[in-house]
């Protein structure tokens, strides 16, 4: 059985346009925050990965589909899981829900790189901690 990473958030005024609708680019920030929290939940941070492994995790690509809007003061939940993994990168699927309804779906390709920006092997201890989160589909 797979597990999802979960991250809850509230939509603030700064996240919205003048009509109280979340600005489309801010969903990328919500997804980034959820990925950062996912790292924390397995005992890592972006800073720790840089300090211990001399590596960074960068976004190579992001495919995002906006299904419905979120609004000022909505309570949202971001669910994330690892779709696939290779020696140097992994795909993370993420969904944002509002009251259990999917409003955004994204697939993010993340790559481990060294300080010069060249791909490097994902450290085994990080790879093994991601294993419970490998899955082919997201359950809402």
> In percent terms, what proportion of residues is strand?
35-45%
Which CATH architecture would you pick? Roll
Radius of gyration: 15 Å
Number of helices: 3
Report the span from N to C terminus: 15 Å
Major sheet description: 5 strands, antiparallel
* Silhouette: elongated
Describe the structure.
This protein has 140 residues and is α+β, with helices and mostly antiparallel strands. It has one domain (5-133): Thiol Ester Dehydrase, Chain A (Roll), CATH 3.10.129. The chain is 22% helix and 38% strand. It has 3 helices and 5 strands; from the N terminus they run E-H-H-E-E-E-E-H. A 5-stranded antiparallel beta sheet has the order 1-3-4-5-2. The mean pLDDT is 91.
Features:
140 residues, alpha+beta, Thiol Ester Dehydrase, Chain A, 3 helices
Could you give a short description of this structure?
The chain is an alpha+beta fold.
Give the helix/strand layout:
Layout: E1 5-10, H1 26-41, H2 46-53, E2 55-66, E3 75-85, E4 89-98, E5 101-114, H3 124-130
Antiparallel strand pairs: 1-3, 2-5, 3-4, 4-5
């Amino acid at each position: 059985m797979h597990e999802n990473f979960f991250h809850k958030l509230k939509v603030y005024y700064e996240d919205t346009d003048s009509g109280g609708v979340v600005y489309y680019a801010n969903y990328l920030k919500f997804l980034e925050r959820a990925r950062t929290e996912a790292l924390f939940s397995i005992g890592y941070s972006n800073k720790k990965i840089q300090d211990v492994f001399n590596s960074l995790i960068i976004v190579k690509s992001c495919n995002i589909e906006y299904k419905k809007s979120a609004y000022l003061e909505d309570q949202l939940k971001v669910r994330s899981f690892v779709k696939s993994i290779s020696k140097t990168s992994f795909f993370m699927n993420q969904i944002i829900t509002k009251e259990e309804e999917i409003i955004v779906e994204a697939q993010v390709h993340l790559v481990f790189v060294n300080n010069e920006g060249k791909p490097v092997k994902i450290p085994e201890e990080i790879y093994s901690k991601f294993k419970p989160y490998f899955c082919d589909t997201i359950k809402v």
